[in-house]
Amino acid sequence: MYTSPAPQSARSAVTVPMLLQMKRNRERIATLTAYDASFARAMDHAGIDAVLVGDSLGMVIKGGANTVSVSIDDMVYHSRCVAQGLQSALLIADMPFQSYATPERALDAATALLSEGMASMVKLEGAGFVLDAIAFLSERDIPVCAHLGLTPQSVLKLGGFKVQGRDEQAALAIIEQAKQVEQAGAQLLVLECLPSSLAKSVTETVGIPTIGIGAGPDCDGQILVSYDALGINSGHRRPRFVKDFLAGNGSIDAAFAQYVRDVKSGEFPSLEHGYA
Ligand code: KIV
Fold first, then answer.
1. From atom 4 of ligand 1, which residue's Cα is the shortest distance away?
2. For a tag site, which of 43, 117, 125, 183 has the least CB within 10 Å?
3. Does the beta carbon of 213 sit less than 6 angstroms from any atom of ligand 1?
């Protein structure tokens, strides 16, 4: 079996406060999703700052049409696999559909992800009733990443994966939600499928780092689903914010290294990857 080469020099482990410091230092945060130890190891060696075990695994691993079928057992299993591959990158795990419908359920699910899944942070989608769960977890010393804009667990209600915040009222609502999740205790914020100008406003409004996907170049960091970043699209139409980093690179290791370089330098995403 081929294993990635050891890193030249061991990096120190990335912590949640370090991400905040990176925002303050204007150092862009490079993150990708991972679902297994081998990919996680390759990303870690490439210098990725954080790895998300996304519930996108419901689509890219389980082959479903959305993320709704993902269970807490799925998340714990994949999070634990990813943890085996990481030395330095921060491990964030998604809270699956309805696992945070009440603060008490959220505490059970988050505890499983941290203790059995070996994650260092959990991610929840939305604001509204979710603010109680964010506060409940944060008050109990569980680091929380919020997720606003297109929230894929709401796809059945939204009627599809669509760009959010396009009219003024919706844009103002997202800025307000961003303030609320920070106030509730979130220490990181994913912004998905927003007009680039709105994501920029959110990033300038909140003190916590923002990580964009389809949210333009002005977030504090970027994330892609790793399968998208390698051009594996399982027959789906490729969204405009995706770039295939394997094309032109001879290996997965080189593709991940270029992704990290391009995010850090600001080369990715370019304006063409964003929404107006
Ligand atoms: O589940 C996932 O992979 C995600 C990213 C798209 C941010 O939430």
1. 54
2. 183
3. yes
Best mutation site among 223, 226, 232, 242 for ligand 1, i.e. most ligand atoms within 8 A of its Cβ?
223
User: Which one of the listed residues 192, 204, 267, 272 is annotated catalytic?
Assistant: 192
Catalytic residue status for 192: yes
Q: State which ligand 1 atom lies nearest to the alpha carbon of 54.
A: 1
Q: Give the Cα separation of 48 and 202 in Å (integer).
A: 24
Chain-centre distance of CA 86, in angstroms?
16
Burial 207-231 (b: 16+ CB within 10 A, else e): ebbbbbbbbbbbbbbbbbbbbbbbe
Distance 273 CA to ligand 1 centre (A): 17
pLDDT in tens, the chain (276 residues): 544 444 545 789 999 999 999 999 999 999 999 999 999 999 999 999 999 999 999 999 999 999 999 999 999 999 999 999 999 999 999 999 999 999 999 999 999 999 999 999 999 999 999 999 999 999 999 999 999 999 999 999 998 899 999 999 999 999 999 999 999 999 999 999 999 999 999 999 999 999 999 999 999 999 999 999 999 986 678 899 999 999 999 999 999 999 999 999 999 999 899 999
